[in-house]
Amino acid sequence: MAPSQWSFPLNLPLSWLGLPSRRTQLLPQDSAKVPFADEFDYAILGPINLGLGPFEEVALFHKRSRTLLITDTILSVPEDPPAIVQLDPFPLLFHAKDSVLDKVEDMAANRRKGWQRISLFAFYFRPHAVEIVEIKQSIRDALKAPDRSPKSYFGWFPFVWKANWQQSFEALRGNGRLFVAPILQALILNRAPKETMAWAGQVASWNFQRIVPCHLDSPIAAEPQQFRQAFTFLEKQPHTSETFPKETLSNKGNSLGFSPLPEADFELLWQLEASLNKFKIIPPAQEKV
Question: Can you give the pLDDT at residue 224?
């Protein structure tokens, strides 16, 4: 267990967390001091002070399989919805609608459309490609909906997607490249850019060939320089594919190099950050490295 882990809504003692409780042990900072050191290496990021509680991440490197195991900091978004979210396709089809009057057929293209829009909501909360309908108008529109059941939120569909919404998703996905989730970029890791970059550099020193994150696409065929490039948002002069030695770059590393997320999609997150800073709920962001 990460040594400064915390729980919400009650910050319970670390000895109470994890199952089975009697076998839960805290990871020492020195990965050479654990009984599985011959099989795994690991690096701990944090704790990063967020006011409400600390943020920590542990990256584990399984040496024999050359696999990096990660929790939250790195991910890749698939173009098509994962199998688990297709067990009940209703949310996918609901978000595939273009207006409150639409009846969306259950087909692969519409499931994909709904998934891509859900992804934009999940990462940005209010992406630039969506417009929120005024509340009174949305209620009037709901009365015209063909399905006003509770499952369909009584016909309520309070947003309209712009014609270029798919460009926002393609920018997010970046052809499947690795990236750090926007909320981590805007509200968490920029509170400790030096520590984060030192950690990312340590992880990138391992000779892994694939990454297994806890969210979305997995496993991901990726190499250390691609992992390192995902953190360039914390740099004053971001590394690109061209700034890495040529001998360290594979063809895939070049094609999936640095590509920042669109600034316009961060609008709500920056507003949220400003509010949290104003009321001193979280510490301010630190200067980039």
Answer: 96
Amino acid at 147: D
Q: Does domain 14-76+177-278 have CATH number 3.30.70?
A: no
d(CA 90, CA 219): 27
Structure tokens at 90: 């209703």
pLDDT digits over 50-99, tens only? 887 889 999 999 999 999 999 999 999 999 999 999 999 999 999 999 99
Long-range contacts of 25-30 (CB under 8 A, 24+ apart): 25/1, 26/1, 26/2, 27/1, 27/2, 27/3, 27/58, 28/3, 29/3
> Where are the chain's structural domains?
14-76+177-278, 83-174
